[in-house]
Amino acid sequence: MNFLKRILSVVFLSFTIMFNAQDKKFKIHTIAFYNLENVFDTINDPLKFDEYSPIMELKKGRALAYKSKVSNIARVISEIGKDVTKQAPAILGVCEVENKTVLEDVINHPLMVGKDYGIVHYDSPDARGIDVGLLYRKDVFIPTNTSTYELKIYDDQSGERITTRDQLVVSGMLDGSRMHFIVNHWPSRRGGEVRSSPKRIAAAKLNKRIVDSLQSADPYAKICIMGDFNDNPNNLSLKKTLKTERKRKKVSFKGLYNPFETLYRKGLGTTAYRDNWSLFDQIIISKPLLEKDYSSYRYYKAGIYNKNYLITSNGKYKGYPFRSWNSSGFTNGYSDHFPVYMYVIKAVDTTLN
Questions:
Q1: Which residue among 132, 147, 222, 289 is least packed, with the fewest CB closer than 10 Å?
Q2: Number of structural domains, the chain?
């Protein structure tokens, strides 16, 4: 490793990255997304089909399972990006949560309560009763506008509407920089990848309309699209509908960059099924986050948070994400998905740019 690379690897405890060769200091924050895998409370909601959730199917020990699940999720969230930033994520998109109450239980856990997280959540019409949401650290992010967009898709045989998750949009100020976050959980591959693909393409079209609207209001909008897309970075919904690019230099003025496509090409994934890895969980960003003017936050790098404790250590599913539920009930695991993250950085002294 040469001298410059050694310098770039050093991270100081003041929550900044120091590039000694150029005498520059950068603030750094983690933006992350996590599919929490069926976080349902123990109360039967008559307006939802939550009686079919894994926890409600337990004959006993529901309260203990719920407490353990919340504790496990709190641990993961509190540690994503911490080895670099020394802090929990500034922004975290989540999916597969039943309601706002379960998110409140997570942020009020002892591992989380001191971090003072806020919540943005709307109930969605999803048939399973699961929603998306956004957690944010109040000390660094101030929401200025929140909204939710319905995805209207229909069964190709009966013509009946399929109720699914809304798309959540949160705009606000991240430590003085205006940013927009779109949180997604696109329709699953139930019925097969090909047959279900039009549903995810419809979700991508809705996403594209949201992005177009934000860029119409501000062509230089800094947009982070995050979620469980139930598609890989090379699938049509992302490549053809959202028009994501793998290479930064190919991203047009109003284009979108997907750093996770490169990771997928390397064989990495966030969830596994029948010994095949998929990288369904991604964070996609707009062109202004790639600029080299660090007077406001810019993209630094992205990754998959797959620490050893999140991986099944033995048995048939050795190497898979250590999921919370199986046919026998609660496993005391975490999720069937690994979280994903990216770092954004901003120059502390803008006169050095």
A1: 147
A2: 1
